[in-house]
């Protein structure tokens, strides 16, 4: 009797949930689906049309305006509990972006990020609850040596996100390329990604080691992480 009651209750709940999901207005996003497929297969994705040209220009203007205001600071390694500045490891300067105080260009950026996060959580159950982003500028001759984006005392970062804001005439000889270190059936392979303007790279924070090669001219980007808990 009790078993039959529990089973009937379970079936009723399942039926209600199915009706709810069927009623949901879900529209498949081909770009997001490609991102999901790429990350599932190879742990990273590269997208050249995530932001429009106008949005990239607006974000470039924002980062340069704030750089002129001398608001940036030397980037450190480690998290807030044990961060330290080591110029022999990384040489970029950064400025954290707060969504609550975002300007018009930054608001457009966060709107797209939030839309992506909502899609990932709905379709992949990633449990992304937090995010953090900063502007990053690499002056000439600076770099960031090979590293992983997670810490010993904090593993909340799940996906790393980079959007390049360099000028339209950026060329490979300008340097500053991102190198992802991949595992191809036990053999390490280097994936070189050139920081062309508007290009977005997303990869698994806890798996892929990477580095930024020395730059020959100023390199502009937004870097951030999608985090759990």
Look at the structure and name the CATH superfamily.
q2cbj1_9rhob like domain
> Do you know the CATH architecture?
Sandwich
Report the top-level CATH class.
Mainly Beta
Approximately what portion of the residues adopt beta-strand conformation?
25-35%
The chain-level mean pLDDT equals 87
Which class best fits the helix and strand makeup?
Answer: alpha+beta
Strand order of the largest sheet: 1-9-6-11-4-3-2
The largest pleated sheet is described as:
7 strands, antiparallel
Word description of this protein:
By secondary structure, the chain is α+β, with helices and mostly antiparallel strands. It has a single domain (29-228), classed as Sandwich (Jelly Rolls). The chain is built from 4 helices and 11 strands, in the order H-H-E-H-E-E-H-E-E-E-E-E-E-E-E. The protein has a 7-stranded antiparallel β-sheet. It has a 4-stranded antiparallel β-sheet with strand order 5-10-7-8, with no helix packed on it. Helix 3 crosses helix 4. The radius of gyration is 21 Å and the shape is globular.
